[in-house]
Amino acid sequence: MNRSEEEIREAIRVQSLVCQKLLEIMDLQRRSISCCGRIFVPLGSTRYKNARPEELQRLVAMTALQFVLSEPEDWVEGNGDFEKLASELIELASTQLNWIRAKYHKPSNDMG
Q: What is the Cα–Cα distance from 42 to 87, expressed in whole angstroms?
């Protein structure tokens, strides 16, 4: 498909904005985890500043799921079912992250 220069510039601008917002969310998640005394994954935008948007989205989602998984099972009805599904989603996202890293990053690029 042929795209105009304007469409390409807009897509680049939007991707940059999405990445910036995801990195901000990661910093907020890192601070929240630190305040709770729970460290699940090494977050913070510095480590992932060169990551692809697909990586950032999965990292943010995985961390959000882990916040809910840290609740006692009896706090919210259905937490047992949530735990099963969330664990599967985290595993799938982790597999996807490994695939993205293998496809787009050089072996010497340590992203975690």
A: 18
